[in-house]
Amino acid sequence: MKKVLIIMLCLATTGIWAQSTEFGIKGGLNYGSTGDIDNFSDAREDFPDITNGERKAGYHFGIFANFGISSFFIQPELVYTKLTTDYGAFDYNLDKIDLPLLLGVDILGPLNIKAGPSFQYITNNEIENGSFKISDVENDLTVGYQLGAGLNLGNLGIDVRYEGAFTDNTAFREEASNNFGIDSRPSHWILSLSLAL
């Protein structure tokens, strides 16, 4: 009986650790915007044509890993993302490093779904307008979420996701009589192509 239990335990352990591992590169386009303007009425006093954030296209590129167990997988990524939002009177540019940590499942053939937290570290935060500057954000590091679906065709992957925020992360206007801030945490769609190496 002990031998049978040991064999069953060994088979179960082998099944758990029999996993696939992939590493690769990825890149693609984003479409979305950062958040609303705080103290909007103050901002309109100096910028009558200001708006509350029009979506624009951006881009991203980076690396990923995929650790699979049966039909489930964990997919950490390290991605550089460039975003621009049009606020009418100016454009707000944001460069960031994203670290999504996604849990996923293969649901039908090559199709999968995934979701998880996404850590954001801001590397550049600026306004395209010579009349004023934007200060640093409240927090350089914040946590949001990503969720979406993917399609794996051999070593090639196609991914569509939505990224949102749990909380605001305000960047403030510097040296202004009428102070206002911009929520730097984006809400955007992400379209990626990936290649497993």
Name the average pLDDT: 85
- Total number of beta strands: 12
Low-confidence parts, pLDDT < 50 over ≥5 residues?
Answer: 3-18
What structural class do you assign from the helix and strand content?
Answer: mainly beta
Order of helices and strands: HEEHEEEEEEEEEE
Work out the helicity level: 10-25%
Shape: elongated
Strand line-up of the largest beta sheet = 1-3-4-5-6-8-9-12
Main beta sheet strand tally, sense and closure: 8 strands, antiparallel, barrel
**Using only CA atoms, what is the Rg?**
22 Å
Number of helices: 2
Determine the strand fraction and express it as a percent band.
over 45%
Question: Can you tell me about this structure?
Answer:
This protein is mostly beta strands. The chain is 12% helix and 64% strand. It is built from two helices and twelve strands. The chain has helices at 2-17, 40-46, and strands at 19-33, 37-38, 56-69, 72-86, 91-108, 111-128, 134-137, 141-153, 156-165, 170-173, 181-183, 187-196. It has an eight-stranded antiparallel β-barrel with strand order 1-3-4-5-6-8-9-12. A four-stranded antiparallel sheet has the order 2-11-10-7, with no helix packed on it. The relative contact order is 0.22. Mean pLDDT is 85; it is low at 3-18.
